[in-house]
Amino acid sequence: MSKLILPHGEVTLPAFFPDGTRGVVRCVDSTDLENCGVQGIVMNAYHLMTKPGATTIKAVGGLNKFTGWKRPIITDSGGFQVFSLLRENASMGEIRPNEIIFRRDGKKTVITPEKCITSQLAYGSDVLMALDYCTHPADPYEIQAKAVATTIRWGKKCMDTFANAKSKSRLFGIIQGGNDKALRKECAEALIAMGYKSFGFGGWPLDEDGKLTEEILAYTAELMPAEGIKYAMGIGKPENIVACVRMGYNLFDCVIPTREARHNRLYVFNEAHGVDDNFYRYHYILDDEHRRDSRPVSEFCDCHTCTNYSRAYLRHLASIGDGLAARLATIHNLRFYTMLMERLR
Fold first, then answer.
1. Which residues are catalytically annotated?
2. Would the pTM count as exceeding 0.85?
3. CB 89 within 8 A of CB 137
């Protein structure tokens, strides 16, 4: 598949969507994103439930009008928050057979598969993600099996709710199972039988050493229908994106480019073309070597930052803590990622 056609526009594949978790890609606005060549954004259904709330977003016309972003939006279901929040602190909530309970900042949020879908429909999302039970690859078989059973059960409720809405948006399933191929196969086959055509890779994609779990990623990609989207959720290191495209994945999201920009790390290509070994590096803009450097961040980049500003000026902005430093760095890193996608195409 070379294009994904959605209510708010076409997405040329492979594509990278930056994370706008709470309805904003930090430090930049919709015009900056468009100028960087960003085709879509990923937001988080759970966080948007808490602030500003689904009814507020629906009242102002949906996420696109609320945020001023005219292009596609994916809303993640909140399943990852089960992994990242509840696993580390059980007092923040619990997972029940038919719902997730979150307790945070003195507030209680209940997420059911049905509410997960109705909220995303209220947001006007282009792609809705089914509610899943996320795991770590090192989790024991019993937890992986429970996650698969729960993901399948919730997947059916999500599909039924979505089908009744007759929406023009798309619903993606998520394949769980950790590193167990039989569980991955069981999960994929059950969801495909329900009518799911596009999928995200579920679970943490890195091992305990921080390395990509390539074997299970490749196997899971083979389980996904060829005519659908293969979404490598949360994978964002440039070399990992390249590896996953070669496996067949064609959609990516991650906080890496924007988070790294706020920490003054700017990605640059080593050559004008290609994604061979060692195809990129990064500048830490506060390094003293940039103090009097009049060159742009990258000679191969056409972004607003590289077209108009020097490394010396960016270093100055960062050294005085001015907010413009984060904006210009974010613009550059996002353009690096959209150019990476262009190279991969």
1. 76, 253
2. yes
3. no
